[in-house]
Each structure stands twice: as C-alpha cells, then as structure tokens.
Amino acid sequence: RKEVEQDPGPFNVPEGATVAFNCTYSNSASQSFFWYRQDCRKEPKLLMSVYSSGNEDGRFTAQLNRASQYISLLIRDSKLSDSATYLCVVNIYSNSGYALNFGKGTSLLVTP
Amino acid sequence: GAVVSQHPSRVICKSGTSVKIECRSLDFQATTMFWYRQFPKQSLMLMATSNEGSKATYEQGVEKDKFLINHASLTLSTLTVTSAHPEDSSFYICSARDGGTEQFFGPGTRLTVL
C-alpha cells in the first residue's frame, strides 16, 4: 500500500468551477501535511500547509481528518492559471529524520 | 529568501558516463539536503538525505555506490550518477532545509542518458 494515495485525475473543469481533491495517508505517525503544486517539468512549490482545524488561503481551503487519515483541498472559482498537478505531501519522522512523502499528484486542467 | 539552485538544469550524456548535479542554497545555510527522483507521471521519490559533514542516508532500493552524494558545506550538496544508463534518465530534484521543517526545492535537473 502506498504511503500517500491520490486520485490521479485528470480533473477537467471550466473556469469558475469549484473542484475538490482528496488524499489518504497510511502512516498514523505522520507529523505534518501539505499541498504542493507542480507545473509541468518544474519543481514542486508549497501551496499550503494543512491543519486539523482546517485552513483557508484565498480561494483554497485545506482540511485534515487525522482519525480517517484523510486530507482534502478545495479550490473555488477556478482560474486558468490553476491548471497544474496538485501533490498531497505528508511529513513523517523516520530513522533518517523528517522526510516528505509525496503522492503521485492529481492533475487539474481548467478550461475557458 | 530561501532560494535553492541546481546545476545543470538539463544534461544529456552517453551511457556509461558519470554526471554530477549540484544543489546550492543561495541565501541560507542548509543543515539537511534531500535528493529526489521523479519519473514521468510518478511521484517524487526520496533517494537520500544528507546532513552537512556526514554520510548520506539512502532510502531502500537506492544504490549508494551508484548515486554518490557529497554535502561538504552548508550551502552545497552534489549528486553524482556514476556509470549512467538509460534507465537512470529522470528528473532529479534537490531540496534544502535550514533547521526548520519547511523544505525549499531546487528547479530540478532533467537527465537523459542515451
């Protein structure tokens, strides 16, 4: 079983739509949680951290459910520039220290 | 702030040659650097973690003799792919952390082995 699982998509949505991505993780000892955005052939960039209380950054809302080991990302009023791959990332402490575990990513294409 | 650079951004080499990739933290001291590999349509996979001045810790399945990592200073780590083969063709990304929990990623190096 993969450590971090995501629906790969692609999600094709029109501009202005609301879209939600889900992610599950297997290691209950996971310490912290993030959503990263990765554009084609580029490095991942931190979009936002995810907290149990839920957090919002503009059009983006992230939620964490530790009991279900489930993370979500909601994007409201989608823009063309939101087209990218969204990576669910979990920080786990192991023998080599803290390490980020990445999901395969969910591909989003926002169309005019 | 928190800029990480990688060099080269792209390299094409013949099978059997060795390739060195540099990762630099430009405006902070990186106590820990990480090397990842990403194959097309796959997730980033951690290859190894290196702390300045000590040997790198490799993830299971990553050959330490093939992927040589040197973290000689607080701002520079190098990954050398020795005797590269076509199956080593991938996107190699480094990240650096200053003592905190956030990792800052380099722009990646695309390696193509012919």
Supply the key terms.
heterodimer; A: 112 residues; mainly beta; 6-stranded mixed beta sheet; 5-stranded antiparallel beta sheet; 11 strands; globular; B: 114 residues; 7-stranded mixed beta sheet; 52% strand
Strand fraction of chain A equals over 45%
Report the uncertain regions of chain B. none
Spatial extent as radius of gyration of chain B: 13 Å
SSE order of chain A: EEEEEEEEEEE
The CA-CA distance between the termini of chain B, in Å, is 37 Å
- Give the CA-CA distance, first to last residue of chain A: 37 Å
The major beta sheet of chain B can be summarized as: 7 strands, mixed
Task: Specify which chain pair forms the largest interface.
Answer: A-B, 22 and 23 residues
Number of helical runs of chain B? 0
Shape by Cα distribution of chain B: globular
**What is the element string of chain B, with H for helices and E for strands?**
EEEEEEEEEEE
**Class computed from helices, strands and strand pairing of chain A:** mainly beta
Q: Major sheet of chain A: size, sense and barrel closure?
A: 6 strands, mixed
Mean pLDDT across the residues of chain A is 92
What is the topology?
The complex is a heterodimer of chains A (112) and B (114).
Chain A: E1 4-6, E2 11-14, E3 19-25, E4 32-38, E5 45-50, E6 55-57, E7 60-65, E8 70-75, E9 84-94, E10 97-102, E11 106-111
Parallel strand pairs in A: 2-11
Antiparallel strand pairs in A: 1-3, 3-8, 4-5, 4-9, 6-7, 7-8, 9-10, 9-11
Chain B: E1 4-7, E2 10-13, E3 19-25, E4 32-38, E5 45-51, E6 57-58, E7 67-73, E8 76-81, E9 90-97, E10 104-105, E11 109-113
